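A quick aside before the break. I want you to see a complete sequence-to-structure record at least once, exactly as it would be stored in a machine-readable document. Don't worry about memorizing anything.
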Amino acid sequence: MPYTISGGAVIREANITRSWGLSPASGSVIAMGSTTGLCGSDFTVTLGGDTFHGVVSNDPVAQTFNDGQLTKLELVDNRVKLMWDDVYCTFNNLEVREDDPSTPGVDRQVRYWHIKPDDWDSQTKTWTTEPYAAKDIINFLLDAPTVSYSWSTSFHSAQDEAVGAIDANKGAKLGNVIQQVTDEQGLVFTLIGESQLTWTRKGDGTLPSITGSDHIDYELGESINSNDTNVRLVGDRNRYQDMPIDLEVDWVTGYESFWFEPFWLTEVASVFSLPATTIAERAVIAAKARTVTLREYVTAKDDTSYSDYGIWGEVSRMEIPVWTYLNDIVFKAYRVPRDYTVNGIDLSSLELVEGLLAAVEFDIDSGDFSLKSPREYFPDTKAFIILQGQQVDLLDARTQTLITKEQLDDARTKWQACNKFNLDTRNKTVIFHHPVFVPGTDGSALFVFPNRGVSGIASDHPLYNIAVPNAAVEISHAEAKAVMVMDAEIYSKRFGSGHRKGPKYFKGLNYNALMDSGSFTEEVKYADGKTADQKATTFAASLIAQQATYASGRFKRDGGSGTVLNGVIDRVTTSVSFTEGISEEVTLTKELGQSNFEGERELERKSQARELFPGQKSLKQAADDLMLIAKISKEIRRNGPSGYANINDVMQRVVGAVDCAPTTFNSTDSWHAGQPVFVDPATLEPAPDGKKFLGINIADMATGNGIAAATQGVVPVRMKGPITAGDNVGIDDGSGELPKRDGAKFIGKAEATFSGTDTVLIPVRLGGGSQRKTFVPFEIISVGKSEGGDNLIGVNFFSTIFKSLVGNDTLTISGLLTSPNPTTSDSGAFAVPAIGEKIWVEITTHDGSTPPDLVPASAHIRHGAVGGGMWDEYPNAIAINNDDPDNPYQEFFNLLLAEVTDYETDDRPALLDFVIGDEHRQITLMYSQNVFITEWDVEGMVNIVPVVPTLNFPAS
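That is the input. The structure line, written in tokens, reads:
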């Protein structure tokens, strides 16, 4: 009986082997006659009961024998086409995500994301709560738009289960990805017929009967397979969330006494024996204070108790300046205790990771943590920390009544959450953005309230909560509790039995466990509701399902063919000889080792984790430095910072005066907050008969080098009453005199009223009294609050030109404050306008009479929104009345005085600022020139000329 190849050619000889795996069946055929042009073309070979479908792999070679011309063809089956297509996709990746992205932070859980082949171009993710099964992934692959050939499938039952992450997002051959999915489950596949891919497990199936007369030359037996029968399934490190973890300080406590700059300057002068008599010598001390390192200081002081051999970034803390240590570590760096353990694993072997497994809540009185109910898994927070102490960032330096004494006391006794921190995972340290600490009580508190207890100042008095920083405060570290997550031991679990042991890694397989004080409470399950052990059992099922021994050997079948591959048969070789006919050699199972794959994504992550080139780290640091410079530059654009940065800053800044522009002086005496500082101009040393007014001392009980004194802005001044808002404040000549109303040496103008005669703190605008000459033509001042609680302001004016017009009854200005020392009942007072509204003078320059009156008729102080009938031409100053086109005339001239803006976004200096509800409004001065009004030689117009003012600052 002849054997044929597609096209009808008769086969003289053939030898083709079918086997399991990605490699295609291969063989050779010698056909009768001469055939050309077949390389790369499809073929079908029929050999008895066997039919092979494949591709001619090389050019035909014509050979001439005694019995005629023959053609030899090399063949591979259609599995070769699995390597002719590429696919682009990724499956079964783990990531924390919300169930519904439109409600972020709700129902967060570890979920599976995939990019299917149809979605690869757009990188659109598909999210599922359960991973895709192996057969689902293979079906996605075979249906990919990049796959040219049609395949059918016959799956194994194990392929109903999921496999680990399969990544071909950077592109891969179709056959390689199918092989990876197959290897993950310990299976093998082959090609049946023309296009059916079939999977099995080695050892499954029935051994063919070898009893017929055509079965010859056979040997049978058993052999041990090469698969591991005892598999250790290895995952990632188990992750534990523990609460509470009581944090400890991560600094040398001896440095706590230098939190205030004057204290450190005095220490530097003493330890390094630096003189502090002249201004130049004090500058040397200040420079030394900022550059001396911990190592230099410990050596000079000869006291090793100040040594800190910890790491800061990449360097030893001994090599960083003490000034940096004081500002960035002391009261900011709190660490996990060094004796902390999880499951008996010490801290050095644990890894602190960002991100919680479950949300928690706490009791403000006891500080006890509890898991939120119902559970909120994987909240969007890196850790959860509560403090019992003061946080500098809770203080607002822009508000005169910064915070009440009662609120400060609560901060010391109540637990409060803090989310302004970074995690130093390497050192298991929390770095707070601002210092957190516990100040003392009453006289040793962070702020003192000198006006409390003064006769005439009850709790509802505006001066009751005037606060000033206290340089004598006693400060200690805060109590801090944390909920954190640690990576501990590797997840591993053994499956199967026997002596052939081996590992298998599955990415993303680990326990996520919740703990309370080191004791396990519950496991956070996967999104599909399975525990880590259940996941592992599913993954391991296929790996340990291999038989312990296999039937081994071979047999030859003479005169027949068509033995079907199954899990017991490793390969079948069919041979045809012109002289001997057809025969078939069957080799029983031989187990081959599984392939191991590492996804491109993982390789990419590893390469990114390494330093790409020498110096990359230093370049990154340089970039960080430049970003810091940019941040600082942005901050100093404002005329004064918006909040406190550290405890030293609290003592160097006037509460409520962001533009106080402090200078410094040295003194061995203790100074009260609000005391005027007069100094010798040559030495800048405080002197009772000093000729130079330096400023107002800021912090109470301040002493040492570098005491801060305010030079401008609204500053609390320690003075004797009575005083009325708007009064000039000065100090008489003589030792020990207190500022008072109309004292000889002018200081400024009072901003509040006190009717008593005791010594109190009064807000005073430095340099703002009537002794100055024209500084601005119109001044906007704060008046107080109305009975309804509105902040009131009003407009006064210093323009001599306007005053002459008013005095001559030439011009009337309506809406001005009627008194230089106004009260809330003043008819010119009005509520602070809304953000975006303006304050301006509207001058009526023509009354429309005929003949025209060239003298301004009147002027009004206007405030509110421009447009809608008020200053419709804004920002143009001149309003032309052209109702009668033949006789137009200039009707109004508008002089913009100020506008109300958002303090948080407006970088210009604020004339006044108010916190009203959720808004922080500032009055921004817009115009600071006089206006001179004269007649002009054009009929119907008025000449309004700006005049540059003469500036005259108060005398020292």
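Two observations worth writing down. DSSP finds twelve helices and 62 strands in the chain. The longest strand covers residues 479-496. We'll return to this after the break.
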